[in-house]
Specification:
- The protein has about 210 residues and is α/β, with parallel strands linked by helices.
- It has one domain (about 1-205): Ribonuclease Z/Hydroxyacylglutathione hydrolase-like (Metallo-beta-lactamase, Chain A, 4-Layer Sandwich).
- It contains 6 helices and 14 strands.
- It has helices at about 35-45, 55-60, 65-70, 80-85, 165-175, 195-200; strands at about 1-10, 15-20, 25, 45-50, 75, 105-110, 110-115, 120-125, 135-140, 145, 150, 155, 185, 190-195.
- The strands form 3 sheets. The protein has a 6-stranded mixed beta sheet. Strands 7-8-9-10-13-14 form a 6-stranded mixed beta sheet. A two-stranded antiparallel sheet has the order 11-12.
- The protein is globular, with a radius of gyration of 16 Å.
- The structure holds zinc ion (2 copies).
- One zinc ion binds near residues 54, 56, 129, 148 and 156.
Length: about 210
């Protein structure tokens, strides 16, 4: 499986393009749909689905556009569906401009093993940053996409209006049980490994 990154939008969200057998999974297309589709077309992949790690606008701003261009499904956890359909429902204030990012998910993510096309992975529900935050774990490839739940040397904020701070600890504990050599691809910033975070990230001190 090839993993490619496209940095998009004003918060420099990383959109991941996973490639396998000429098929592509798009994780967190946060903004700049043209940049993402040009990239996908240039590498010659056929998108088969869009996955969202959570319902924040900087992770799904290009989702509706790409869903329509490629006629593919958009997956999100049911707890974050509303914030994708009405982005300002998950903001401190009502920012009318946020509505331009709105998208309509067509499928729901469920915790457990998932198969989409050639891709086999596990959806791990990790509430905290948002109620419906999920991580996508590819056991065979030893990689995990953590959205805004786990970063290199940090974790996502849990003081936002759609956060669930009480659940973050348990979610991080779930991630800390993965093998040390699993590579972590976060929604912002550089990649790391579970082992490195267990050693140096104060929030993963179990
Ligand atoms: Zn977020
Ligand atoms: Zn983010």
């Amino acid at each position: 499986m090839q993993i490619r990154k496209v940095s998009v939008g004003r918060l420099e969200t990383i959109c991941y393009i996973l490639g396998l057998n000429n098929e592509a999974l798009i994780i967190d297309p946060g903004d700049e749909p043209k940049k993402i589709s040009r990239f996908i077309n240039a590498v010659g992949l056929r998108p088969i689905a869009i996955l969202l790690t959570h319902g924040h606008w900087d992770h799904f701003g290009a989702a509706e556009n790409l869903k329509k261009i490629y006629s593919i499904d958009l997956y999100v956890h049911p707890e974050d569906r509303k914030s994708v359909e009405e982005p300002s429902s998950c903001a401190f204030k009502d920012y009318p401009w946020l509505e331009v990012f709105a998208a309509k998910p067509t499928k729901e993510l469920e915790e457990g093993i998932m198969k989409i096309g050639s891709f086999n992975f596990e959806v791990i529900h990790t509430p905290g940053h948002t109620k419906g935050s999920c991580c996508f774990y590819f056991e065979k490839e030893k990689v995990i996409f953590t959205g805004d739940t786990l970063f290199k040397s940090g974790i996502g904020r849990t003081d936002l209006s759609c956060s669930e701070p009480d659940k973050m600890h348990l979610s991080l504990k779930k991630l800390s049980r993965l093998p040390d050599d699993v590579v972590v691809y976060p929604g912002h910033g550089p990649e790391t490994t579970i082992g490195t975070e267990k050693s140096f990230n104060v929030f993963l001190d179990f």
